[in-house]
Amino acid sequence: MVASTGTRGALQATGDSTGRSSGSFILPLLFLSFILPVYFQLAGLQLSGYRMVLLIFFVPAMIRWFDGSGGYYAPDYLILGFAFWTVLAIVFHHGFSRWEYNGIAFVEATGPYFIARWLIRDERAFRAFVRWMFIAVLLMLPFSVNQFISNNSVLLDLFSKVGTTYPIIPLEPRLGFFRAQGPMPHPILYGVFCSVAFSLVWYVLGNDRSFTYKVSRSGGVVLATFVSLSAGAWLAIVVQLGLMTWKNVFAFLQKKWNMLLYMLGGLYLFLEIAADRPPAQLFAAYLTFKKSTAFNRINIFVYASDDVIRNPIFGLGFNPWTRPRWMLGSVDNFWLVIALRYGLPALIFLVAAIIVIYVILGRAQLPSRLENYRLGYLFSLTGFCIAAVTVHVWDATLCLLMFLLGAGLWMVNAKEESDQPQSEMKQSDRRRIRYTRFGPEDT
Inter-axis angle of helices 99-119 and 123-150, to 10 degrees? Predict the structure, then answer.
């Protein structure tokens, strides 16, 4: 489902200017709030900086979606379906006793998505989004490097003097260094958050720039991701690098992405037949720092999947999932958590939205300048989605995913800002110019 010609006209007439004027302060406000570690309690709600921003701009964003100025796309309805099903699942299991969780969960699932749909409707707004995400990563970087070396969380210590902050997670060193948590609740969340910027910085901010420029900027993102010492975050970077390499090596092939999908599908079938355990377990076993972690993830997948099969419609809510007593209750797989907590319909809604985004953007006929924008966007989204198989994401990192999903749909009907037909420009010039005996009035 794509926007009609009339909708595109309305977008050009009103949406762009509105998006630019609003985005001039909402985008930096949102991304700076993502990296603020302070929160407070109000009427049973845990409110942080980014949650306040989402609550303030949720209604305006929905109004801008309802007026049709940005068009209507299938992922819009699928994201709404995902959010409504999560609420329904919690009400099914716990009644309205979890009303505060349901309210915040609904806003975190839909707010970032529809704010992105409202604000990002052209190339300029998309570039501003990437720039502010990059700035957020850079602002966290020196504090994270310091924690990586000294194990001192300057950010959390500093903000703890003015309010309640996330607790510092005591984790054992890796590779002789300490895991940087930044202003996030966990090093994993910090690392995954930073990793999303890699391809976007390379292809969007680095578009038409020198190789040195791209490496210097994207290198900062890699460093920020590295100091989290999170295998899941590193995986996101590796996936993006792999896709970038594939694109360059097989640039001469028209169907290179189809070939990659066929190869990955064939590899999965081969492992399913030839390996002594499911591919998902192999994936978990080899993408970890320690064998004990791999063993734990395999057991999580086995026991939690069984619970999903036994409770396919509404999941388990916040009820305990079946596991041995010696296992912790955390589930290091975002997609599995969605199915386990809310049921398979919630997972299907969310995954379907992502697949549809790939399909409609892959088929979009873009001007040559915007091809790199699409690559950066899809590569970053792919890295996030694959990393989410090995980690669970929540809080600001989850909101970043939802924002990212809504941030790329403008490209479906995008035109370069300089693509106005010459004939229209000439006609416009002729209408503006008024001649007198002294020459054109404009002179």
Answer: 130
Tracing tokens 């390379």 back to the chain, one arrives at 202
Question: How open is the CA angle 427-430-434, to the nearest 5 degrees?
Answer: 160
Q: What are phi and psi of 200, to 5 degrees?
A: -65, -40
Q: pLDDT by residue (tens digit) across 308-355?
A: 999 999 999 999 988 888 888 788 889 999 999 999 999 999 999 999
Structure tokens at 85: 């099903």
Contact residues for 433 (Cβ-Cβ < 8 A; gap 6+): 440, 441, 442
Per-residue DSSP letter, 410: G
- What is the domain partition of the chain in residue ranges? 5-416
C-alpha span between 337 and 134 (Å, rounded): 29
Q: In whole angstroms, what is the distance from residue 181 CA to residue 186 CA? A: 5
What is the C-alpha to C-alpha distance for residues 348 and 332, in angstroms, rounded to an integer?
19
pLDDT digit string (tens) for 259-302? 999 998 898 888 878 777 777 667 766 666 666 666 777 888 88
| pTM score of the predicted model | 0.86
Among 113, 144, 177, 124, smallest CA distance to 35 is for 144
Count of CB atoms situated within 10 Å of the CB of 364 = 16
Residue with token string 């990192």: 397
Check the CA dihedral 348-401-229-34 and report its sign. Answer: negative
Name the DSSP class of 57.
H
122 CB-side CA count, 13 A: 20
Q: Is 395 left (phi over 0), alpha (psi -120 to 50) or beta?
A: left
- For 290-300, write each residue's pLDDT tens digit: 666 667 778 88
- Residue written as token pair 């409609």: 360
